[in-house]
Amino acid sequence: MRKIIVCTFLTLDGVMQAPGGPDEDAESGFEHGGWQKPVDDDEVGTAIAGWYENADAMLLGRKTYDIFASYWPTADPGNPFTRRMNSMHKYVASRTLTSVEWQNSTLLEGDVADAVRELKASDGGDINVVGSGDLAQTLMRHGLVDEFRLTIHPVIIGTGKRLFAGGTIPTALEPVNVSTTKGGTVVGVYRPNGKPSYDSY
């Protein structure tokens, strides 16, 4: 069974929107695009590279697919990640796209949850869900996420799309590996572990 792994960059207050640049995603008037680089460090890059060691595919929502497909095909070939991103298989979940042109991309058909269940049951390595907040929410609602890999950066934005937005199903998490980089970013790997328990002091 392949694992579905949500890989996301977050601010300390949980915002995942437009970490990569001012023009990445200005939806709803978001003015803080590009918040990640000023609080990034080499250890974060090393951790992210490790997230892809056992993955041979990505699962993307339409918005993230559009961002990636406009960047990676012409990205610096000297960047070792460029070849990896272009060569990996990309599965795209969209209600509006009718075709996908980025190499090694496949548009999922029918119900997204059903299509992802089929992917999980197929042969292959891990499948990373990168960005794609709406898609991640759908996968969480259907119990299809096997692991969260998060970088939580030392900055507060206050507005923007959040990975764990309103309506997220309460879930207990098992910490697999949690560390802090020299720049203060928490790199955490967590697995869903049933429902939360409750108690009092």
UniProtKB/TrEMBL annotation:
<feature type="region of interest" description="Disordered">
    <location>
        <begin position="18"/>
        <end position="37"/>
    </location>
</feature>
<protein>
    <submittedName>
        <fullName>Deaminase/reductase</fullName>
    </submittedName>
</protein>
<feature type="domain" description="Bacterial bifunctional deaminase-reductase C-terminal">
    <location>
        <begin position="2"/>
        <end position="186"/>
    </location>
</feature>
<dbReference type="GO" id="GO:0008703">
    <property type="term" value="F:5-amino-6-(5-phosphoribosylamino)uracil reductase activity"/>
</dbReference>
<dbReference type="Pfam" id="PF01872">
    <property type="entry name" value="RibD_C"/>
</dbReference>
<dbReference type="InterPro" id="IPR002734">
    <property type="entry name" value="RibDG_C"/>
</dbReference>
<dbReference type="InterPro" id="IPR024072">
    <property type="entry name" value="DHFR-like_dom_sf"/>
</dbReference>
<dbReference type="GO" id="GO:0009231">
    <property type="term" value="P:riboflavin biosynthetic process"/>
</dbReference>
<dbReference type="InterPro" id="IPR050765">
    <property type="entry name" value="Riboflavin_Biosynth_HTPR"/>
</dbReference>
